[in-house]
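Reading a protein record of the kind used here takes only a little practice. To see the layout at work, look at the sequence and tokens printed below.
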Amino acid sequence: MRKLFLTILLLCTLAASACAETRSYTYGGSGHDILYDAAVSADGRIVLTGTTDSADGTLSSRTKAGRSGWALCIDAQGHVLWNFCTRRGSYDTLRYPVFMEDGSVAMLLDTSHSGLYEVEWILLDRDGNQLERKILDSRGVPWIVKSGGAADDLSSYVIHALNKKTTERLSLLYTFDGELIRETDYTEGKYFPDPVLADGTCITIENDQDVPLDVTVTFHAPASPQMLRVAPADGSDGALLYSQPDESSTPLGKCLTGIDVTQLAPAKDGFIFVHVQGYDGYMRAEDLESINTYTIMP
């Protein structure tokens, strides 16, 4: 199985209030354009996914009309690198991009046609060319299947299945390579982390369906890094990390002594961003609270 790049696996939601400088860019055409989700690659490319029926503006290179799933790739300065559109049926929508270690990007397509509801896995290379695709789940009426984001531990995709006649509900877990892991009890809600650049810049998406070029992507640069307190751990060659100077605060994790540690964003939605020499990434708060099982190595 392809390995996910560490910082992409450990993405988290950043609070806009913790950001200062902002810059915005608009994308789309004269039609109906929506972007829902985004992911950031190790080299700073951003892929956003949604749906479009435009064939002008940002999407002027399209040769076919009609609603399609839409993936847009931009760089950190907002320049368009490529567009990818795909159409299999009605209401096609691309969701939940995830970058792989080799720079390719996986995503899911929600579609329906001929009485079937389907979720399809698609893999694109770094230039937006299709490498692979396959149907993960396909069910006829009264079943509806929809992509449901990522599992809580960010280790797999979640697909939801609902029987409208019997109200039976279940979820299926798939690897980011599109391989079935198992069927499980229905998981309420959807979760997918908001994107963030390596310097702590967070990215938000706003859709205005009444205006051409109607998707606004905003970059929120952090005001300034916040230093963490580093304290030696008793009986250990490492040090504990604290978000507050108060010695009674709960330790966030553990690292080796003598290492500069910076917190770029406050903890939110169970994750916290920590920058340590040789490591940048997000850590689950529930893991970090157990310092005996989580060590940050330089």
User: Anything to note?
Assistant: Residues 2 and 100 are 7 Å apart (CA to CA).
